[in-house]
Design brief:
A hairpin with a 3-residue loop joins strand 3 and strand 4. Strands 1, 2, 3, 4, 5, 6, 7 and 8 form an eight-stranded mixed sheet that branches. The chain contains eight helices and eight strands. The relative contact order is 0.16. The protein starts with 9 loop residues before the first helix and ends with a strand. Helices cover 36% and strands 28% of the residues. By secondary structure, it is an alpha+beta fold.
């Protein structure tokens, strides 16, 4: 069992939804995670590449993986590792909960989290929604179609504990859009001080944020 598995607030989810059934995938299931979470794994590769570039430790062209980035390669992490000749992901955990008879195309309760180079705990994808509670005027699988379980605070508290336990220096995530920045700031995150972050702010999506431990 990975220490990262302790970030997902299983006890709190079970208390709110007793019928929830949990699945956990880790490093030995990497191919399956890539198949299930291709876009999130592509973005995880981008995050690792960006971290390597701003670290100043590698003498490689920032656009040397451009073709892979352009096509949204789900295995990007593997190519980043080869290009830099070093391990980029130290551990990974993908956990999700399904609820019997909930009419959703994919889990509404899930977390993909990884311990990445140089030493960060990265929240790659998180949803903490109630599959049994569809919001009014939404189709079942639209964005924000379900009411929140209000468990991000619990998840983050777990993440901070695990980050300290494994010696990670910060917790990072990518804000999908500008309006979400204020939400994450309430939990202590700040926009990363980098050229990529400033450019992302201008276009309004994919903004890297960090919480220093």
């Amino acid at each position: 069992m990975s220490k990262l598995d302790g970030v997902f607030p299983i006890a709190e989810i079970s208390e709110k939804i007793p019928s929830a059934e949990f699945t956990t995938l880790g490093m030995k299931n990497l191919a399956q995670i890539i198949r299930l979470k291709g876009m999130a794994m592509f973005e995880l590769g981008l995050t690792a590449w960006h971290a390597a570039m701003i670290s100043g430790q590698f003498n490689v062209a920032p656009n040397s993986l451009g073709d892979l980035v352009d096509r949204g390669e789900p295995n990007l992490l593997k190519y980043v590792s080869r290009a830099l000749n070093r391990k980029m992901v130290f551990d990974i955990s993908y956990q999700y909960a399904t609820v019997p008879n909930a009419p959703t195309a994919e889990p509404k309760i899930q977390l993909l989290i990884a311990h990445l180079f140089p030493n960060r705990l990265h929240i790659a994808d998180v949803q903490l929604l109630n599959p049994e509670s569809v919001r009014a005027h939404f189709e079942v699988d639209e964005d924000q179609s379900h009411n929140s379980l209000r468990l991000f605070g619990s998840l983050l508290a777990n993440a901070e504990k695990i980050a300290k336990d494994i010696g990670a220096e910060k917790i990072t995530l990518t804000s999908a859009n500008n309006p979400l920045i204020s939400t994450f700031k309430k939990y202590g995150f700040a926009v990363e001080d980098s050229g990529m972050a400033r450019q992302a702010m201008l276009v309004g999506f994919g903004i890297p944020m960090e919480l220093v431990i």
